[in-house]
Write a structure and sequence with these properties.
With 707 residues, the chain is α+β, with helices and mostly antiparallel strands. It contains 12 helices and 30 strands. Helix 3 packs antiparallel against helix 4. It is globular and about 105 Å long. It is a multi-pass membrane protein.
């Protein structure tokens, strides 16, 4: 995409207004119907702007570039000072890696073409592409209607995820805990807090001044460490009352980093007295006597902090950089355009959409520039990522920008609306091949499924080491510590939620900010919410998994009942051949599987999969099921609606209960085999998953197409 660039650097010797004896200059760049303005300076004859304007070549309808210098007047019309004109045919073309074009001084002409005593302006004018380094910070003619602070919200940017750590606090014991009421021994617990995260140990079962817990509290922390670890020892004074008896605050950067499963050293920390016991007279004794707490605290460097669902994970590297392996490939992505977008809001009485695209892979987020008032925006922006694991997913989201200022009106109050999402698993791409495809942008709303348009992408995955990729398929997806010392399911859910919040807050501070609603949509923040539609979709996925075996059993039943005599006779002949020549059994089975593979190879997918509405059960979902899916948590519905949904859930649970009962009835064999497997010798067991398990877990599943 070619753009006309005009760099306005500065001006000098501008003539002052003869009436006010001063000048408030600004520059206006005009190309056809498009006008761009710099900010104005008050009472300055030698101003410096250092601003770049970019005009899309395909929309230019003029052969002249005009640069005006005007004097800002708050009351009357702005006064004309001078101008410079350029013929479009004489503008030089510059393509990186050429050095930037040097700006030059030009004399300003008055309306009659005279240059006497009008001053000079330093400019550079050239024709370039969106690859020009001036492009990201330039004013764009595509967004000419954006005013004020909204200009900063339309630019393309690259963001980096904050470096996340798991902070493990092993609370071992405490000594000499004194309650405010010294008439009875304390029964205490420890509460830990890092930022907004609050966790508690269990209540010590006995009343004692020397309690023991030996419990782990795990938090998520992000560099740079802005919060402290605050631990409070609290006494259960009465059933409804907890009193703080001691407290300590610790800096996170003082803790040891753990790179493997070996425990770190524990330390005793003196606690600060808290409450009514802290009197001026007691402070003399603080150095002689203090409550203590025994802790083992470390920053876990060998885990990968999960901020996204493991089904759509884009990065599997541990936190500690020294544990990273070499990249196995390069992912190049061209975010080209979108077509047929729906109107997202009303602007001056007509529908409009101000679309931008966000892509997330690994630690890097990218955001394209916003194309205003267009249902067919063209971005043509290219980005590159290093790939460390092929079994990962890149996610694209398209949003409507609601932070441009002006007169836009929409249903959401300053929230960037979702237009749609696309996921692409790298292992479904052929290496070194360029895919240029359009993907449907589908959004599920309480009113039903809606197609919002299409997103056109160009993708290429370049392999650097095929041997390394084959090696990875035999190893677990996540770092080893996730299997040697795994977290519980509830812990993982809670830690993922906290990690998503931290990422959303940190990226929301950038300029322009990547807003919370955008980050949450890209990271699937609501994927754990109950949905009858998703439950049905997953049930039918299980059914389709066993459909081959079911079809085979039906076919054998037909053979047995002689529904097709020719087929039954051929099966008898094959059976007698295998009985007479048993050495042909395995070759026959493998030949049959090979022929099936060759037959199905013709129908392999030629393009990366996209969101599948039938697989997601989105088209057949009942309106009440969608209404339940989009309900708040806790619910905000009427009592009779809640009762109806509860009864429906009971009926589903009843069916599951029946199936579980049938499995339990026929489960003696399964139980015996499972028991023998569980009691096997330690030589035959490992905490890490087996190679076949790793291989099959890494194969692409149809979950990538689930809405």
């Amino acid at each position: 995409m070619f753009y006309l660039y005009v760099r306005v650097v500065k001006a000098k010797d501008l003539p002052p207004n003869p009436v006010t004896s001063n000048i408030d200059p600004y520059v206006e760049v005009k190309v056809g119907n498009y006008k761009g303005k710099t900010r104005h300076f008050e009472k300055k004859t030698n101003p410096e702007w250092k601003q770049v304007f970019a005009f899309s070549k395909e929309k230019i309808q003029s052969s002249v570039v005009e640069v005006f210098v005007r004097d800002k007047d708050m009351v009357a019309r702005d006064e004309y000072i001078g101008k410079v004109e350029f013929d479009m045919h004489e503008v030089p073309t510059r393509v990186p890696p050429d050095s930037p074009l040097a700006p030059q001084w030009y004399r300003l002409e008055n309306l009659r073409g005279e240059t006497r005593s009008r001053g000079e302006i330093m400019l550079a004018v050239w024709m370039g592409t969106q690859a020009d380094e001036a492009f990201p910070e330039a004013w764009h003619s595509d967004s000419a209607s954006v005013k004020g602070e909204g200009v900063y919200n339309i630019r393309s940017k690259v963001y980096v995820n904050p470096k996340l750590w798991y902070l493990r606090v092993n609370v071992i014991e405490a000594q000499d805990v004194e309650p405010n009421d010294k008439s009875q021994p304390p029964q205490v617990f420890v509460k830990g807090q890092v930022g907004q995260q609050v966790l508690k140990t269990k209540l010590c079962p006995t009343k004692t001044p020397n309690p023991m817990w030996n419990e782990d509290l795990v938090f998520v922390a992000a560099e740079p460490f802005e919060e402290q670890l605050v631990l409070t020892v609290e006494n259960k004074a009465s059933p409804g009352k907890d009193e703080v008896v001691a407290k300590i605050s610790l800096q996170l950067n003082k803790f040891e980093i753990r790179l493997d499963h070996r425990p770190v050293h524990s330390h005793w920390y003196n606690l600060e007295r808290f409450g009514f016991g802290v009197l001026e007279g007691d402070k003399r004794n603080e150095t002689k006597f203090s409550s203590r707490i025994h802790l083992r605290v470390c920053l876990e460097g060998a885990y990968h902090v999960l901020d996204e669902s493991t089904m759509y994970i884009s990065d599997t590297r541990p936190t500690a950089r020294q544990l990273w392996k070499q990249p196995i490939g390069i992912l190049e992505v061209g975010i080209l355009s979108a077509q047929g977008l729906q109107s997202m809001k009303t602007n001056n009485g007509k529908g409009s959409t101000d679309a931008y695209c966000v892509a997330k892979y690994g630690q890097k987020w990218v955001r394209t520039r916003t194309i205003t008032e267009s249902f067919n925006p063209k971005w043509n922006e290219q980005y590159t990522w290093e790939v460390y694991d092929p079994c990962t997913v890149i996610t694209f989201g398209v949003f409507d920008n609601s932070h441009l200022g002006g007169s836009q009106q929409g249903s959401g109050a300053k929230v960037d609306s979702r237009i749609g999402k696309v996921r692409i698993r790298l292992s479904t791409l052929e290496m070194d091949r360029i895919y240029t495809n359009s993907y449907p942008l589908l959004v599920l709303k309480p009113s039903g499924l809606k197609k919002m348009g299409e997103l056109q992408l160009a993708i290429r995955f370049t392999c650097l080491s095929m041997a390394h990729i084959i090696y990875l398929y035999g190893h677990p997806l996540l770092p080893k510590m996730h299997y040697l010392h795994p977290f519980t399911v509830n812990q993982l859910d809670s830690l993922r939620y906290q990690a998503m919040n931290i990422v959303a807050v940190r990226l929301g501070r950038a300029e322009p900010p990547l807003r919370k609603e955008v980050v949450e949509y890209m990271l699937d923040v609501d994927s754990h919410i109950w949905s009858m539609r998703r439950s049905k979709a997953n049930f039918f996925r299980i059914v389709s998994l066993f459909s081959g075996a079911i079809s085979m059993s039906k076919w054998l039943g037909e053979v047995e009942k002689w529904k097709n005599p020719v087929t039954t006779i051929l099966v008898h002949v094959l059976f007698f051949i295998l009985i007479c020549y048993p050495e042909l059994i395995l070759p026959t089975m493998f030949l049959y599987m090979f022929l099936i593979g060759i037959w199905n190879f013709r129908y392999r997918p030629r393009h990366p999969p996209h969101m599948d509405t039938k697989l997601s059960w989105a088209e057949a979902a009942h309106p009440d099921e969608l209404d339940e899916e989009f309900d708040t948590f806790p619910t905000s519905k009427a009592q009779d609606v809640i009762r109806m949904r509860y009864d429906r859930l009971r009926s589903v649970a009843g069916r599951i209960q029946t199936v579980v009962g049938d499995i339990a009835t026929q489960g003696k064999v399964v139980a015996s085999v499972g028991g023998i497997f569980w009691l096997r010798h330690p030589r035959f067991r490992s905490k890490l998953p087996s190679v076949p398990s790793n291989f099959f877990k890494r194969l692409p599943s149809r979950a990538d197409g689930m809405l």
